Amino acid sequence: MGSIQFLKGIGPAKAKLFERLEISSIADLLHYYPRTYQDRREDAPNAGLNPPSLVVFKGRVLRVQSIPARSVLIFKTFLADEKNNQIECTWFKKRSFHSLRFDPFAALKKDFKMNAEIWVIGRREKRNDFFDNKISVEEYYPAQATDTAWHAGRITPIYGLTEGLSNKQFRQFMQEALREADAKNQPDILPPFLTEKHRFLASSQALRAIHFPNSLAELENARARLAYEEFLLLATAWGVKRTQTKVAQKDYSYEIKKHLLTPFRQNLGFEFTNSQKKVINEIFADLQSPLPMNRLLQGDVGSGKTIVALSAMLLAAENGYQSAIMAPTEILAEQHFLTFQKTLKKLNVPVALLTSSTKTAERKKILAGLKDGSISIVVGTHALIQNDVQFHALKLAVIDEQHRFGVKQRGKLKEKTAKLDLLTMTATPIPRTLALAFYGDLEVSTLTELPPGRQPIQTRQADEYQAHHLVAQEIEKGRQAYIVYPLIEESENISAKAVSEEFEKLKKVFPQFRLAMLHGQMSRSEKESIMKDFAAHKTDILVATPVIEVGIDVPNATIMVIENAERFGLASLHQLRGRVGRGKHESYCVLVAQNKSSLARERLSIICQSCDGFKIGERDMQLRGPGEILGTRQSGESEFKTADLLKDKNILQWALQDRDELLTKDPLLQRPEHAPFRKRLQELYQKNWHLIDLS
Ligand code: ADP
Ligand code: MG
């Protein structure tokens, strides 16, 4: 099946609109599943599907009225529904020169003839609660018309639209696409042995049913089959990738020389924990193996992942290779950069920082250094994966806080790092099945202990007055404090303003102390100098947005006040709290919260009771669902269209097993009966991710 322009009624202009929804082929359209459904059946047995203000009925036209008023034209019709209630529907049109010559209601008049039967879908007019038999019409369909069966009198699909495309048009085009698919008699994409094994609906049936289900049961069957299909496709893509990388052995090797690693260890000022030693050994073994590394390092906030990564990067440097570490925010990248500079000062290893706010001249210099190999270690944000960044000998890539990167960015990085050693790090524990499905075949290392001397952080809820009192107490003891305000409406801009206002107020609350402010709208040099001043204890209180959530490391800071704590998720609260308790002093986290929902109350009590990031992560997964945890929601992209990671855990399990069976039988999907599956795999992943190469 080809381009969407082959469908009746879709020309270049319409195709452009579909392009915005990333639909360019008929197959794309068929796999563009409804956002939701409405029960528009005659007696709507499952009206719970519908929004409360929605009115759906099949009525008979009692009378019509056309009222010319001064500036508007009004068309009014009264219909009787099955129970003989009278319902009033009204349309307005602006009077215009045009309307003198053409009746703007001509089509309505033709459809709303006396006694005509018409399906009406509309909303109760809110302003007229007393007369809820007045509605504003959203869609209507003459009952006799041939097309009506797709729009009303059934469970009706509602699509995610873009301006210029209506649900009605969407359903019509979808019908065309389904007819086209039937006519072409598309083979089922699932390998036949799997369709048989699970007794799924056939592909064509499942697609028809996900768009135009005859019952909720049929819809659920279709959804299960399509969810399985999605899991299987993704898992297989990773599986094929694995087969291919196994074939592609590294064309470089490592030798442990220690001329950098030994002085590095000696200068650290502390011993590695046993857990760090074990993990470093695992990573070094991967690096020395002939196959590319794909390892996920999990470790709670503060467990010391950075030093582990840096050890691996130094091993690369010892061997004359370049390495890169990519962080999700500029602040974190800057923080790493400062740590690296400090730790490597005596070692003479050239380090650079590359983010989107790196000035043009400096950027040019860095790009040149990366290309000629004079820079060994580069720290950065996604600015590192821009097309013009080229390396002389990049052999090791580290992704910090990797769950915070979107799918596309991860894909892009995979592409860049196809033949590299890859280390990903996260403080959010991910169940193994999910990790496999999301990040492909990987090994997992876990830091199971925190560096010695860490005390659990005393966490409690308090009001603002108590919070300020505690802050003053700590500062008088010679310690430092953070006061954090939430992001407002996801916008750093508005948040910056809000935090500036709070900052002014706090200066009056704490006239005796030195306050500084940090937010995402500041320039890099500003941020850098504020962080340096705070680290050097030139300021006492850092007032900030959650930009400081990851990475900031000041052992003398012992109290973290989180304002509007009810607005933060569990993972964020835990990360923020992790900014304190980094030195030898007892540390505190104070949560100031207003209007708590029951969910917020639950989150706050979990955070007060536990300092164990893995336990908190598990509870978070239960409360929010894995989609959010994995960052697919945050980044506005969803990896799965129908699959629901919590609900479909078993389906995911089957898919992973079946994937292994399939690839054992046919590692590169070359058998003729697997051709349709292979083709879909290519459509999906070759285009978007360059993840696999089946050409
Ligand atoms: P995270 O795992 O959250 O990224 P970091 O790497 O930022 O943690 O480490 C947190 C702090 O612990 C840093 O100040 C780091 O220098 C320190 N640290 C790391 N390992 C040790 C250790 N073995 N002993 C003492 N302090 C350590
Ligand atoms: Mg970290």
> What proportion strand?
15-25%
> What oligomeric state best describes the polypeptide chains here?
single chain
What binds here, in terms of ligands, is: adenosine-5'-diphosphate, magnesium ion
Q: Percent range for helical residues?
A: 40-55%
Which radius of gyration do the C-alpha atoms yield? 30 Å
Strand arrangement in the largest pleated sheet: 10-11-9-12-13-8-14
Structure description:
With 695 residues, the chain is an alpha/beta fold. It has a seven-stranded parallel sheet, with helices on both faces. The chain has a six-stranded parallel sheet with strand order 15-20-19-16-18-17, sandwiched between helices. A hairpin with a 3-residue loop joins β2 (54-68) and β3. The chain is globular, with a radius of gyration of 30 Å. The structure holds adenosine-5'-diphosphate and magnesium ion. The site of magnesium ion has 4 residues, from α11.
List keywords for this structure.
single chain; 695 residues; alpha/beta; 7-stranded parallel β-sheet; 6-stranded parallel β-sheet; 41% helix; 17% strand; binds adenosine-5'-diphosphate; binds magnesium ion
Summarize the structure.
With 695 residues, the chain is α/β, with parallel strands linked by helices.
Summarize the SSE layout with pairings.
Blueprint: H1 12-20, H2 26-30, E1 36-39, E2 54-68, E3 72-80, E4 86-94, H3 97-101, H4 106-111, E5 117-124, E6 134-142, E7 155-158, H5 167-184, H6 192-198, H7 203-211, H8 216-247, H9 261-267, H10 274-288, E8 294-299, H11 305-318, E9 322-326, H12 330-343, E10 351-354, H13 360-372, E11 377-380, E12 394-399, H14 407-416, E13 421-426, H15 432-439, E14 443-447, E15 458-461, H16 464-476, E16 480-484, H17 492-509, E17 515-518, H18 524-535, E18 541-544, E19 557-562, H19 570-577, E20 588-591, H20 598-609, H21 613-624, H22 626-629, H23 649-665, H24 675-689
Parallel strand pairs: 4-6, 8-13, 8-14, 9-11, 9-12, 10-11, 12-13, 15-20, 16-18, 16-19, 17-18, 19-20
Antiparallel strand pairs: 1-7, 2-3, 2-5, 3-4, 5-6
This protein binds adenosine-5'-diphosphate (ADP) and magnesium ion.
Magnesium ion is lined by residues 305-306, 400, 551.
